[in-house]
UniProtKB/TrEMBL annotation:
It comes from the Bacteria. Its main location: membrane. The chain crosses the membrane at residues 6-25, 32-50, 62-80, 92-113, 119-138, 150-171, 191-210, 222-254, 274-292, 299-320, 418-440, 460-479, 500-519, 525-542. This is Transporter, CPA2 family. Residues 579-663, 666-745 form the RCK C-terminal domain. GO terms for molecular function: antiporter activity; monoatomic cation transmembrane transporter activity. Coiled coil: none annotated. One of its GO terms (cellular component) is membrane. InterPro entries: Cation/H_exchanger_TM (IPR006153), Na+/solute_symporter_sf (IPR038770), RCK_C (IPR006037), RCK_C_sf (IPR036721). Keywords: Ion transport, Membrane, Potassium, Potassium transport, Transmembrane, Transmembrane helix, Transport. It is found in: Membrane.
Amino acid sequence: MNHLPPLITDLALILGAAAVMTLLFRKLKQPAVLGYILAGILVSPNFKFTPSILEVHNVQEWAEIGVIFLLFSLGLEFSFKKLVQVGGSASISALTQAIGMAVLGYAAAKLMGWSQMDAIFLGAMLSISSTTIIIKAIDELGLKKKKFATLVFGILIVEDIIAIALLVLLSTFATTQSFLSAETGMSILKLAFFLVLWFVGGIFFIPTLLKMARNLLTDELLLIVSLAMCLMMVFLASEAGFSPALGAFIMGSLLAETTKAEKIEHLISPVKDLFGAIFFVSVGMLIDFSIVSQHLGPILLITAVCLVGKVLTTGVGAFVSGNTLKVSLQTGMSQAPIGEFSFIIAALGNTLGVTAPFLYPVIVAVSGITTFATPYMVQWSTPLFFKLERQLPEKLKESMTRYSAQAQTISAASDWQLVVRTFVTNIIVFSVLLIAILYLSDTMFLPFVNRNLEARMGAVSAAGLTLVLMSPFLWGLTVRNEQTEAFARIFSQQRYKGPIWIMRGLKLALALFFILYVLNRYFDTVVAAISAMVLMGLFIAFRGRIQALYDRLETRFIANLNDRELQQQLEDLKEAESHRNVALAPWDAHLTTFEIPPETALAGKTLEELRWREHIGINVAMIRRGQMTIVVPQRDERIFPCDKLYVICTDAQEKKLNAVLRPDKKIAAAYREIEMELDKFTIELESRLLGKTIRESGLRSATNGLVVGIERNGVRLLNPESAMVFEQGDVVWIVGEKKLLDAVT
């Protein structure tokens, strides 16, 4: 008789129990997560009344894979652009909740006499709400279109980032026993460094690779490639000293910026559901009812702190950031459940051996109660608001309404603030990229050339290759933030001259530091200094080529970053066209470019005034203005002569826009070649101009010109006033149309 491996038997038991419990909880209209946890309790060795699994450690390894795919899936729903778009209200609310609940959780643990480490980990677990459970509850209640739901989704996005940071901080704290240690500071800097590097590198390479292989990517191959990328980033994160969950989340967020994001999310869903179920079942397996019964009081206290604390902290944060009392209360009452990130933090404490054994089953029990309560709290939030509103004094309600309206007023950042912000961002991004190149040079280039070339030749080759790779980023570091509209506006103002030159000096000093570091790494100090001066000269001599290379890199990065958004605009346009009953057979919308003629009458008008989208049906995806690029321009963006427009349109719409941009026929008919000339003539005694002012002479209209100077008695007067009177012997210098000047002079 064949003997089945225990793992197969265990999986059969786990999935069978999960299936039965999920069906039961579906029938009861409860979240499936609770069913998985209950299934884990039933198959756990701690539960003696049902068959239990044989090899717990194997299931735990599968559960770790479940965490990886769960975080990968959350990353696919995240995207860095969403983080920018959620706005200040969601960020303030999320931070208020995270800090407030961390303090309340820590205080509750200390009140119960728990250790310092248990208290800190409990605070971290309570500070993060369950994204999966909250989204599912709001969706099932049909509230996704409500105003508070948008704020809730924004808060969950910010909390994902907070949770990732907590995983790094807690891992460091567990070994150093201090949040203020040098190791903690280095962990934060290290996390920031790798996040920037992975984001910039990932956005540049991953969408490009997917585009190159788009004709080969079947559903099966796309799934395999996505999982391979996920596990590769998990490996890189582990090698860098971070948790595997961080790597999975980062890769998911990078793929979320590609046009394949929805497809990948659809393909990965069954894999995520399978391993996610195993993860939540493994969570239930760790619940020991003997421990739970001993800590029933702490479970009830922590549950009360979680339910009440999240309503207060999130509600206050939402109200302070400018939301109404109703939206704030609804938002706070929807944040109750703790879930996947809390379990991961609890598992981290167990793995590191720094938390008590009872903490994991306690937090799982709290999660179960808060998850069960969430749909009811969301439903009760609106009736509770109306009841509260009736109890509040009229003056207090008026004050709260007035504060909410004032807090929503958005003050635009000044040009100087925008320039400083861009300056700091550029310094950080380009420094990270340059440091990464230096690291590659030290660990890969130099050892390779040393093995294959003579020492001096190897040093020259490694230094040269390193500097070539660094050149476009050194160029971007020194000139990038000076190619913006805000910089152009403040550059002409005298009071900003000093600060601008200070910023330029800092950028040049930093660029010179990187160059000297490379040269000093391979040569002695004198040779390095001389070589640095030569290289600065070469940078100036070849600045055009370096600028062109940098422009290509930046254009590729921006195109990749906005590719998904452009595709979404294309889909929106297609839907809008169908609503207007415009027959498109076949659908031929494409991205094309238009250049605004210098003589156009449209110059200076905003996109809202032009109303091209409403009248023609086109979408302006990007504007290239000299060295400046405006991606997805807003409705108040103005069109200027020589702008290059990147437009999504059909063939028919392209013809219409060409007709709109074509110069007026009257302008074309009136066009003639005009030759301008600088000439002079002398005011004689019989001249008709003698005794007249420049204005009275009519020279401006007679010559289409301008009197630019008068020489009188050997004295030259430049740009004379129009009231100046011509005298005999004056030599008049005039710029005008050559044919007309000949008649006058």
